[in-house]
Specification:
five-stranded parallel beta sheet, about 180 residues, Rossmann fold, alpha/beta
Length: about 180
């Protein structure tokens, strides 16, 4: 089974991916890890690589192509990434597609707790990042990340624990099979 989990920063994707993958015995592919790998291959810091992404659409295309390549070559995999569900849908690769979201203030608090910093600043950074990504993905692919029609399951994680979110995903996947 292929499963995608998408959502904005701080929605809890990475934590939930690990829980779901363990329970469903799936390999986990985190797009952020591939992003870091691409930065390393380019001999660049993450910050410099992120800036390069904003200037050069090839970087995003390379990351998205790698996710599609992985998805098409494996059956039992969980893929985490902002565009993963869209890319698999576009390439006709079957998957159960999950979107996780949470209140912006909650997401900012989670990011500040995970990465340090002040919640208000993290909130501004999240908003800027989301606007940048939305414009990039629309320009590069014609994909509006605000369109959630492709998802099989949408979960608001604002008041849920990671375990509760994982429970809901595993239950929905079981019913879907």
């Amino acid at each position: 089974m292929r499963l995608t989990i998408s959502g904005p920063p701080g929605s809890g994707k990475t934590t939930v991916c690990k829980l779901v993958a363990e329970r469903l015995h799936l390999e986990v592919i985190i797009s952020g890890n591939i992003f870091r790998q691409l930065a390393k291959e380019a001999s660049m810091s993450l910050s410099d690589f992120g800036t390069a992404c904003e200037m050069d659409p090839e970087v995003d295309r390379k990351l998205d192509a790698r996710m599609v390549e992985i998805a098409s070559s494996r059956d039992d995999v969980l893929l985490e990434g902002r565009l993963t569900a869209h890319m698999l849908t576009r390439h006709g690769i079957p998957a159960f597609r999950v979107y996780m979201d949470a209140d912006l203030d909650v997401r900012a608090a989670r990011v500040a707790e995970r990465e340090g910093g002040i919640k208000a600043r993290r909130k501004r950074e999240i908003v800027e990042r989301e606007e940048c990504e939305r414009h990039r993905y629309l320009a590069y692919y014609g994909i509006d990340v605000l369109d959630r029609n492709i998802y099989d399951l949408i979960i608001d994680t604002t008041y849920l624990t990671p375990k509760q979110v994982a429970d809901r995903i595993c239950e929905a996947v079981t019913l879907h099979e």
